[in-house]
Automatic annotation (TrEMBL):
<feature type="transmembrane region" description="Helical">
    <location>
        <begin position="12"/>
        <end position="33"/>
    </location>
</feature>
<feature type="domain" description="Histidine kinase">
    <location>
        <begin position="195"/>
        <end position="415"/>
    </location>
</feature>
<keyword id="KW-0472">Membrane</keyword>
<protein>
    <recommendedName>
        <fullName>histidine kinase</fullName>
        <ecNumber>2.7.13.3</ecNumber>
    </recommendedName>
</protein>
<dbReference type="InterPro" id="IPR003661">
    <property type="entry name" value="HisK_dim/P_dom"/>
</dbReference>
<keyword id="KW-0597">Phosphoprotein</keyword>
<keyword id="KW-1133">Transmembrane helix</keyword>
<keyword id="KW-0902">Two-component regulatory system</keyword>
<keyword id="KW-0812">Transmembrane</keyword>
<dbReference type="InterPro" id="IPR004358">
    <property type="entry name" value="Sig_transdc_His_kin-like_C"/>
</dbReference>
<keyword id="KW-0547">Nucleotide-binding</keyword>
<dbReference type="Pfam" id="PF00512">
    <property type="entry name" value="HisKA"/>
</dbReference>
<dbReference type="InterPro" id="IPR003594">
    <property type="entry name" value="HATPase_dom"/>
</dbReference>
<keyword id="KW-0808">Transferase</keyword>
<keyword id="KW-0418">Kinase</keyword>
<dbReference type="InterPro" id="IPR005467">
    <property type="entry name" value="His_kinase_dom"/>
</dbReference>
<dbReference type="GO" id="GO:0005524">
    <property type="term" value="F:ATP binding"/>
</dbReference>
Amino acid sequence: MKTRPAAVRPIVMASPFLVGAAAILLVMALAAFGRVAPLDSGVVILAIVAITAIATRASRQSDAADKASDALAGIDTAVEQFSDILTEPCLIINERAVLIYRNPAALKRFPRAKTGDPLAFTLRDPDLVEAIDKAIETGTAQGTELHIPVPNETWYRASVVPYRPGEDRSFVAITLYDFTEQKRTDRMRGDFIANASHELRTPLTSLMGFIDTLQGPAAKDEAARSRFLGIMRSQSERMSSLIDDLLSLSRIELRQHVKPTTEVNLNLLLREVAETLEPKIEAAELVLDLKLPEEPVTIIGDRQELFEVVENLADNAIKYGGDGGRVEIALIASASRSGDHHAITVTDFGAGIAEEHVPRLTERFYRGDAEANRKKKGTGLGLAIVKHIVARHHGLLSIRSKLGEGTRVEILLPR
Ligand SMILES: Nc1ncnc2c1ncn2[C@@H]1O[C@H](COP(=O)(O)OP(=O)(O)OP(=O)(O)O)[C@@H](O)[C@H]1O
Ligand SMILES: [Mg+2]
């Protein structure tokens, strides 16, 4: 909060006379005590005039500064107090767009915003400038969006409200409402639809191409027909699995905030996943190690969803880490340091994942090293689904990988 120098002002006003009088007394005293040689009276008078002039000028300057700060401080303490209790950043400017006050939230967000500086030193957005101009011109509240790209990309809705209680007491209050989260969700939704359409269109385009070929040039070519039908079948399967994944993802999202309620025996669950995977394991000529504790481990969860998690992880281990010859699925009771989590780990000893891809693997449609994975079927939704399910179970997901050594995915589930 700013303090007013009003009480000090009369002293400052009186100072030229005080300083002048003090100077005269000083010279008289010095002369009287004989510390200085009896001075030429002209010099004494000149000294007095000079000291008085300097003091007067200093006083005038401080007075002018006071007036300037008065113009800056054209708002009431009540306004300051009110803006202080707002949780959103609030910047108050005068009609020349000079910052006259900022509340603590604004100070925290824009630590370099100084009162007395033009607002443009802090915010230079053209839309905001336009909104301010318009607010001052029309005397009505304006709104605009503000995009601040650095250091952390932030989006604000700015409300620009002019206030004119009296001639020189007018100000404009700019309040910023952060809606970055919503902007991000919107963008993600947009990206998601674009990606999903693209992923569906690719096999569809290829299907249509084959249909045309079969109806036209290859109509009577038996060999080509059976080969093309094979490809068409696999493209349709790809579309179908993509749709399954999309539905699964949207179902999980719908239930994201509903706590699971049933008891799930994890030993049984893992055994069942292993059985389901047998054909794939055999086809890839792999060994599957299933490591289960003696005692039954149960948690409260959604059986089908947890099944999907382990199946997805094991599918990845077989698909991308199959070169290692072995895949391990393990259940560890009371795994975390505090002992209040059980862990499920899926480990492979294959090619591993380059470090830069690891943090992005759970993004929808992210497929790591696209070039290397082109030959392997996948939609890039598997780990996104895993992440959602684990979150719904209040669990933790971690992926550790080393190029050439393999990948280990760990899921911690609360007991
Ligand atoms: N065990 C692993 N070893 C190496 N790379 C992996 C492993 N698991 C996942 N990845 C990489 O992560 C990417 C994303 O995996 P995710 O399971 O989300 O999608 P996908 O397997 O491509 O498709 P989907 O699971 O929907 O069939 C994969 O494309 C692959 O590049
Ligand atoms: Mg996968």
